[in-house]
């Protein structure tokens, strides 16, 4: 069973071929990205809602080095292997790709998703890849968060106990 989960964790060339195969069968490809440092119910709801926007969900995951650059030297809490394995174990996730860059623009341009998803804390004009996705006829969706859940809040609770 773990082998089936691990097959969802792909490098960019493999994911590009996988997505191309899915496109032949039709259906919308949904893409989102993030650190996903500590999985919590907010992540689960966000990802489940993202998947409902199409037939396949692809997640770009910041590498350990990328998370550290974005969040500081104390992060990530869980390494990229653990984070991608947890994401890939979700039934509604179809592929997971680690990226080292500051943004997922290379992934977005290579995979050409039909729907690009981010949280409602973004404005569309600030979503990396939004102009590109819209240029090939795709759309951008901004999903609301579950109140009360965030990795930073969980981290603070752990530190204060």
Write a brief structural summary.
This protein has helices at 2-6, 12-24, 41-51, 64-71, 80-88, 105-111, 130-135, 151-160; strands at 29-34, 56-62, 95-99, 115-119, 139-143.
Biggest sheet: strand arrangement: 3-2-1-4-5
Helix content: 40-55%
Mean pLDDT: 92
Strand tally is 5
The structural class is alpha/beta
Q: How many helix segments?
A: 8
> H/E element string?
HHEHEHHEHEHEH
Instruction: Tell me the radius of gyration.
Output: 15 Å
Contiguous low-pLDDT stretches (5 residues minimum) are: none
Kindly, what is the distance between the CA atoms of the first and last residues, rounded to a whole number of angstroms? 36 Å
Instruction: Estimate what percentage of residues fall within beta strands.
Output: 15-25%
Name a few traits of the molecule.
161 residues; alpha/beta; globular; 5 strands
């Amino acid at each position: 069973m773990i082998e089936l989960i691990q097959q969802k964790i792909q490098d960019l060339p493999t994911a590009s071929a996988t997505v191309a195969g899915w496109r032949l069968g039709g259906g919308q490809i949904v893409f989102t990205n993030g650190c996903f440092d500590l999985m919590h119910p907010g992540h689960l709801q966000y990802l489940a809602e993202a998947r409902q926007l199409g037939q396949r969900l692809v997640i770009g995951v910041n590498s350990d080095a990328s998370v550290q650059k974005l969040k500081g030297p104390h992060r990530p809490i869980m390494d990229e292997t653990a984070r991608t394995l947890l994401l890939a174990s979700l039934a509604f996730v179809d592929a997971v790709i680690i990226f080292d860059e500051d943004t997922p623009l290379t992934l977005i341009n290579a995979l050409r998703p039909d729907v690009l998803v981010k949280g409602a804390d973004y404005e569309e004009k600030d979503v990396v890849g939004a102009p590109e996705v819209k240029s090939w006829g795709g759309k951008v969706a901004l999903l609301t968060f579950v109140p009360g859940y965030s990795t930073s809040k969980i981290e603070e609770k752990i530190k204060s106990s």
